[in-house]
Amino acid sequence: GSMKGLYQRETEIRWGNRNEYLERDKETSKYSKEDWGQIQREADDIYSAFLALKDIDLSSEIAFQVVERWQNHISTYYYKCSEEVLVGLGRMYAGDERFRENIDKQGKGIAQIMSDAIKAYCSR
Asked: Which of 71, 119, 100, 123 lies closest to 6, judged by CA?
């Protein structure tokens, strides 16, 4: 799926060949079509939750829970998403044009919400 390519590219852009990340990378090549369907559905749910934060204080408990769900999602299916990694992703979602475009397909402005929510979460 397109998500798979997005995450692989994301990892390469951010960290290139830094072994600690590559070693921790999940065996995504072993995921079946069903696995990807499940992962995509879970991601869609979290995207919807981010979108619902549009008019909510991003330093609220509700917003933090959504960020935690996203962090866990990445750790579970892709690579260990430490807070340091999360900060980098947050910057990239809004700052990298390709990511912003791709993520905003889930809903207009969602990349910025994700970026801002992650920033608030990581500076709590």
From this structure: 100
